[in-house]
Structures are given as structure tokens and as C-alpha cells.
Please model this.
Amino acid sequence: MYRPERMCAVCRTKKDKSELIRIVRSPEGVFSLDGTGNSPGRGAYLCRSEKCLTQCVKKRLLNRVFKAEVPEDIYETVAGMCSEDK
Ligand SMILES: [Zn+2]
Model:
């Protein structure tokens, strides 16, 4: 079976797609957390680790990845996932 690998936007480690969180910008320009991993649009991937999620939020890394202003509620959701992980 084909297991696609994706790179974490923070630590640049390649991991199985299922181990990463995907944030997607739809063709309409709407950002969301993609639970299925199959939503259309451009995606960014993050490890499900507190370190990477915290770094992402702190440095507003998604803005850089998407070259756009990512809404604050997306960062809040990502930050919320840090504590869930414990
Ligand atoms: Zn990472």
C-alpha cells in the first residue's frame, strides 16, 4: 500500500501523513484544520508533538508557509491540540 510521506513545517521531519496534522487553505481561501487529510487546497503539515505545535503558534509559522495571514482561531486550535496530546 502506498503510504504518502509529508514534511512537518516546523522540524522538517518526514513522517507518514497519518501522523501529521494538516492545515489546509481551500481554493476559496478559507483556512481549516483538515481532519481527513483529503480536503482540496494547499496544505501544511505539523507533527502531533507539543514542541512543533508550540513553535508553529509562537512563530506564526503558518503565515510563512501560506504566505498569507492565517486567522487567529486556527492558531488557537493548533495550540489547543498541544495540551490534548499529553
Ligand atoms: Zn515537527
